[in-house]
Amino acid sequence: MAIRTLTADDADELTRLLLVNREAHEPYQPARSEGFFTLETQRERLATAHHMYGILDGDALAGMIELSNIARGPFRSASLGYWVDEARRGRGLATRAVAAIVELAFLDLDLHRLEAATLEDNHASQRVLEKNRFHRIGLAPRYLRIAGAWRDHVLFQRTVED
């Protein structure tokens, strides 16, 4: 298994991973308050989360992958986001997790399209998406506020037909 649904029981390990990776992830993620990195906040997040999955390294939690902004009706689309523990990068965990979430999204959730966005210089994440047959569809100027600044992102998509 590459992924599994996260539950409130995973809050301890998720909080530990977030704290250990805080500095490494900071250049790639929105600014987070101190409260975000607490066990209480992570328990609450996991208790109310939909479509939040753990990336697995064997049986151990090694990161997170999430579907958000799920739209139904004629659009049937979602946004994809993920991260892997810095110490475990480069081992194909994210690539396998994205493959698993694509299968879940298209087969179980009956979605038609997945979208993902990466910072322009996040070549490792772009390779993960390309290995999973996501196609680069353009550049979104000032797409997301990362580390205190509005940053351009490269947009990718994959449809069920790809």
Features:
162 residues, alpha+beta, Aminopeptidase, 7-stranded mixed sheet, 7 strands, globular
Summarize the structure.
The protein is an alpha+beta fold and about 160 residues long. The protein has 5 helices and 7 strands; from the N terminus they run E-H-H-H-E-E-E-H-E-H-E-E.
Number of DSSP E strands:
7
Distance between the termini: 23 Å
* H and E order: EHHHEEEHEHEE
CATH class of the domain at 3-115: Alpha Beta
CATH topology of the domain at 3-115: Aminopeptidase
Number of helices: 5
- Give the name of the CATH superfamily of the domain at 3-115: Gcn5-related N-acetyltransferase (GNAT)
Q: What is the global morphology?
A: globular
Largest sheet: 7 strands, mixed
Please give the CATH architecture of the domain at 3-115: 3-Layer(aba) Sandwich
Q: Approximately how much helix is present in the residues? A: 25-40%
- Provide the spatial order of strands within the biggest beta sheet: 1-2-3-4-5-7-6
Strand content: 35-45%
Pick out the low-confidence regions: none
Structural account:
The protein has a domain at 3-115: 3-Layer(aba) Sandwich (Aminopeptidase), CATH 3.40.630. Helix content is 30%, strand content 36%. The chain is built from five helices and seven strands. It has helices at residues 11-20, 22-25, 39-48, 93-108, 123-131, and strands at residues 3-5, 52-57, 60-71, 77-84, 113-119, 135-146, 149-159. The protein has a seven-stranded mixed beta sheet, sandwiched between helices. A hairpin with a 5-residue loop joins strand 3 and strand 4 (77-84). The radius of gyration is 15 Å and the shape is globular. The mean pLDDT is 95.
